[in-house]
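User: Can you write out an input/output pair for a complex, sequences first and structure second?

Assistant: Here is one pair. Inputs:
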Amino acid sequence: EIVLTQSPGTLSLSPGERATLSCRASQSVSSSYLAWYQQKPGQGPRLLIYGASSRATGIPDRFSGSGSGTDFTLTISRLEPEDFAVYYCQQYGSSPLYTFGQGTKLEIK
Amino acid sequence: EVQLVESGGGLVQPGGSLRLSCAASGFTFSSYEMNWVRQAPGKGLEWVSYISSSGNTIYYADSVKGRFTISRDNTKNSLYLQMNSLRAEDTAVYYCARDVGGSWPRFDYWGQGNLVTVSS
């Protein structure tokens, strides 16, 4: 089973700053199979990035994804007030079919 | 507009059963793979189960294998999760999610979630 470890657990930043979120896999993951989601309180998750670096439909270009192998990164170039939320990485594999990281909470400093 | 609406949750005693439904609209349901994902109170996301577009291929997380059954009715644009032998640790918000599949699998639409509480 591939385990995804996200860091940091909580990130405290101010609007306008740059956010860098990490997702590390216990084994190599195909870049095609790595996605990122945003979740706000009381809502279902929202797809941000798929294929490690492709933005989903309607996602602002301040969101970008990068990485390969075991290390992946979600970057938010200039934080807007609506970006403060919890972020999850996800991988597609085998047994289990999908796994999620434990999440990074991005909070206002 | 794509919509996924879960229903059927509620309070159930340990050992009991519950059936969740997910009504899909705004897209050709029969063309998409679907999943159930859950989130325990204050916790992260946990994938629960997958079903192919035809219903012929199904996968489960080890934590629910043998107790939960995923199914779909493409004539009714609906996804289901039959949950038996429920345990306290199954308490969570359950989401249905559309799976794009293919070369870049990802969940592009999610429902609003439905709370299942297992308690005596």
